[in-house]
Amino acid sequence: MRSYSLIAPAKINLYLEIIGDRPDGYHELSMVLQSIDLGDRVEIRANGIDEFRIHCQHPEVPCDRTNLAYRAAELLKTAYPKAFEQYGGADIFIDKQIPVAAGLAGGSSNAAAVLVGLEMLWDLGLTQPELQDLASQLGSDIPFCITGGTALATGRGNQLEPLPDLEGLYVILAKYRSLGVSTAWAYQTYRQQFGSTYVRESTDLAARQKRVHSGPIVKAIAHRDEMKMVQCLHNDLEKVVLPEYPQVLKLRQTFQQCDVLGTLMSGSGPTVFALTDSREKAEQIRAQVQNTLGNPDLDFWIAKFINTGIQLAPGIH
Ligand code: ATP
């Protein structure tokens, strides 16, 4: 049976701004997304039967129809029923390394890997725009997860503009093991508290554009000015997550006191990250935060920025 093994990287948000409401019920966003070399390994193996089966060792990842990877496979089956008839289903093995419900797009990246892997397994010959369109139907972060690197994401997060690679940066990620934040809760709470400041659909385009503040970070990245870029790190969702979770606020403050280039909560949290320019410094910062907080429930990861999305894993396929 044929199979493909892929690496599905996590992402961090260097910038997340909530602009307003959209008629489709989503939020209008302006985000800068960055892939990092912390990733899940996703193997897609033809199984010769007419179903998809998910296998994952992580206790918090569902192996049923609610898994985003399963939904990606079902979407491709619905879009290309003849290919499904010809090739049949697949077993999808997820080796989970990305922390779950952490604001790092783990589920979205797994779904992106399934779209890429099944497309190859079924010899569909889809173009990038066709694949991106399917990804967009499944979830806002999934188009980015396919192509990865550094990108400006607008609309509901699915309209991508590639940005120059940020090279040589390292990220220290920290997350309390027993803490997960629901993305839906974070956005709903933001809407309740700050919805009155939203730019409305009816606002004319020029006025809408004036309310978007991602210009400086995009310019800094375009000029490869990392010092300027780190001064522009911003995440609107910190305004609702940090007051609700004092330990995340404390973590963020502890990173701030270290010799870091910058620090921020990623996505809807609760992962907090800090940036630095070498692995040695990253190790020192991790040790300093660990010693200061002394909490055995706190997990750390060190990763570097990468300029790729879903990739074939090294080895035999
Ligand atoms: P995002 O940053 O895209 O909002 P996240 O990183 O915060 O997402 P995920 O790790 O994708 O969160 O998981 C969110 C929830 O989705 C989990 O609680 C889990 O139950 C469910 N889930 C479904 N499929 C997956 C998957 N393949 N991997 C991880 N979680 C999944």
Automatic annotation (TrEMBL):
Active site, per annotation: K11, D141
Membrane-traversing stretches: none
Family per record: Belongs to the GHMP kinase family. IspE subfamily.
Ranges in coiled-coil conformation: none
Pathway(s) it belongs to: Isoprenoid biosynthesis; isopentenyl diphosphate biosynthesis via DXP pathway; isopentenyl diphosphate from 1-deoxy-D-xylulose 5-phosphate: step 3/6
Classification via Pfam families: GHMP_kinases_C, GHMP_kinases_N
Binding site for ATP: P99, V100, A101, A102, G103, L104, A105, G106, G107, S108, S109
Documented EC number(s): 2.7.1.148
UniProt domain GHMP kinase C-terminal: residue ranges: 218-292
InterPro entries: GHMP_kinase_C_dom, GHMP_kinase_C_sf, GHMP_kinase_N_dom, IspE, Ribosomal_Su5_D2-typ_SF, Ribsml_uS5_D2-typ_fold_subgr
GO molecular function term, any single one: 4-(cytidine 5'-diphospho)-2-C-methyl-D-erythritol kinase activity
Protein name (Swiss-Prot/TrEMBL): 4-diphosphocytidyl-2-C-methyl-D-erythritol kinase
Keyword field: ATP-binding, Isoprene biosynthesis, Kinase, Nucleotide-binding, Transferase
Chain ranges of the GHMP kinase N-terminal domain: 67-149
Reactions performed catalytically: 4-CDP-2-C-methyl-D-erythritol + ATP = 4-CDP-2-C-methyl-D-erythritol 2-phosphate + ADP + H(+)
Keyword ATP-binding in record: yes
